[in-house]
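Quiz preparation item.
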């Protein structure tokens, strides 16, 4: 598989990183992760995502209300 130049610049975010990014607590974050609302990949018990995925998700959901 051929890698692009951007592959080396991917920043992986963990659940701990997401807690620092979003303005809500651990319980709300867990609800969003469990429900599949946030764009993450679950590997074992760990949730992983990238800056690009979070940015895209925010852009796609701007102006919407998400309840959990």
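Solution:
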């Amino acid at each position: 598989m051929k890698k692009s130049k951007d592959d080396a610049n991917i920043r992986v975010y963990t659940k701990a990183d997401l807690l620092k990014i979003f303005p809500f607590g651990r319980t709300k974050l867990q609800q969003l992760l469990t429900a599949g609302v946030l764009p993450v990949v679950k590997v074992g018990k760990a949730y992983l995502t990238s800056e690009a995925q979070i940015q895209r998700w925010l852009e796609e959901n701007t102006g919407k209300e998400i309840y959990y």
